[in-house]
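Dear V.,

Thank you for sending over the compound details. I've combined the ligand you provided, zinc ion, with the protein sequence from our construct and run the structure prediction for the complex. I'm sharing the raw inputs here so there's no ambiguity about protonation or stereochemistry in the SMILES, which I know was a concern on your side last time.
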Amino acid sequence: MNYQKFILFVVLVYSFGCTQKAKIPAEQIITYNNIEKHIAELASDKYLGRAPMTQAEPLVVAYISEQMKEIGLEGANNGSYFQDVPILSVSSKLSETLDFETPNGKLGFQKLTEFVAFTRKVEAKMSLENSEVIFAGFGIVAPEYNRNDFDGVDVKGKTIIVFVNDPGYGTTGDYFKGNTMTYYGRWTYKFEEAARQGAKACFIVHETGPAGYPWEVVRNNGETTRYYPDTKNGNKDRCSFEGWISLASAKKLFDACGYSFDELKQNAISKNFKPFKLPVTVSAEMDCSFNHGVSKNVCGLIKGKSRPDEVVVYTAHWDHLGVGTAINGDSIYNGATDNASAVSWMLEIARAFKNGKQPERSVLFLSVTGEESGLLGSDYYAENPFFPMNKTVACINTDVILFDGKHKDVTITGFGQSELDNWVAVEAVKQGRYIIEDPNPENGMFFRSDQFPFVKKGVPAIFAKGYIEAEKLGKDETLKQISNYWANTYHKPSDEYHKEKADLNGLLEDAILSYKVGLNLADSKEWPKWNNDSEFKSIREKSFNN
Ligand SMILES: [Zn+2]
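Below is the predicted structure of the protein with zinc ion bound, written out as C-alpha cells.
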C-alpha cells in the first residue's frame, strides 16, 4: 500500500470507528496494579529465572494457568490449560578440526575458534568423509526474486557453504529489501533450505555486520547443550551438520581454491548467481547424546460468538534463562522485561476481553515455552494448533517491554510486511501515538520471537510496542537507555523488577492498544493480507486454497 492509500485507510477507519463498545472499557479493566502484580511475581527469585524442564516450570505454569482460570478463560486444549511440548536436548562433541583437502594442500580449522557445528538429527555419530563441497551463494530459493542458489547443481549428501544474510544487505534496496533482512537472510532459513535440498552439511560464513552479532556469540553456543523440537521422525530430514565457519577461515579456504572472498561475495550478490563445486573435499566428526523432555505451553480461550472456528491468537513466552553464571553475586536470571512483562500484558488483555462483550471470533491466549532455546513452544503450537492456520486470522505477540513509562511511538517489528500495520495505526492514533518501523530491521527481529512460527505458516503477525521515544525521556535519551539495556541488562541477572525504579504506564498503554487491535480483528470479517513483496504471501494464499 502506498503512503496516500495508507493515510486514507487510517482516516476512514478512524472516522467511522470499528471498535465495538465493551461492557466495561478496557481502560478501567487493565490496571497498573494488576500489570505489576504478575511481573513482580513471575520475576521474583521464587521462580528461579523460569527455565523450562526445571523445578521452576511447575510453579510458573501453575501461576499462569490459575490466573487464566481466575480471569474466566476456558482451557484451550480440549478444556486443559496446557499443551505438552516435546523437547529434544542434544549435547555434542566435535572433532578438533574441520579438515579440507584443497588444491594447495590440507587446511584444518580449529573447533570453536574457526568453526562450530551442531545437529538436531537423532544419530549418535555424525561424520563427513571427503564430502564434496558446493558454493551455494546465500543458500536461497526465492521465487519472488527469481532466484535459486541451487539451480543446476545436485547437493544431495554433499556439503554446502553459504554467506550469511541476503543479497540486499549493504545495498540501497533495489534487490531484496536492502538492509531490512528478509527471512532468507536468517541462519535458521539457511539450514532449513539446505535440508530441503538434501545436503548433508551446511556451513555459513560468519560476518559480524550481516550476521548482526560477533563470532563470540556463535562460538559460545559451541559445545553447550542445545534444545530442538523433538519430532516424531527424529529430525531425520535435517542436515547432519549445521555449522558456521569464521570469516578468516572462509578467506583462507577460498584463497586455497583460487578465489578471493570479495570476488565470491560479488558473484553471490549478483542477480545472475550460479552455484558451483569448489575443488575441495571436507571431513569432520561429531559425537552426540540425546535427551527427550517435555515442557508446557499454557493456553486459555474465549470462544467467539458467531464465528468460533476463526481465531485471533495472542502469544507471550513465559520461559527465560533460569540459573546461570553469577554476575555481581547474582545467579538468577529473573527475566522481568524478558518476558514477565509480556505474560502480564497478555493476561490483562484477556481480562479486558472477558469484561467486554463476547467477540465474534475466538481469541486464544498462548503463553509459550522454550522461546529462548529457539521458539520451541510456539513452533510446536504452529505444528499442532487448536485451530487450523488458515482459520487463524493473526498472531499478536510481544517480547521485552521496557519499564520506561508511556511512549509517543508504537514501534512495529516487521513493518511493511502486512496490512496489519494499518490495524495498529488506527488504534495508535487514538492514543495520540505515531507508528514507526523497528530501528534495526537488519537484525531480523521479526523472525526471532514467537510470532514467527505463525508467520512461517502464512499467518500475518503483529509485534508492536512503545520503544524508541518514552515521553518523559525524549527520543535521544530513550535510545541511549535502549542501547544500555541491550548491553547491560538483556539476558543478565540484572533483568529484575524494582518497584521504585519501574514505570509500567507504557506497558499498560501497550496492553490497551493490543487489546483494541485484537478486538477489532476478532469482531471483523476481514482476513488481513500480506503485502505483495512479502516472502510469506504465497504461503498464506496456498493455505487458503487447501
Ligand atoms: Zn524474550
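A first observation: The chain has a mean pLDDT of 94.

Warm regards,
I. M.
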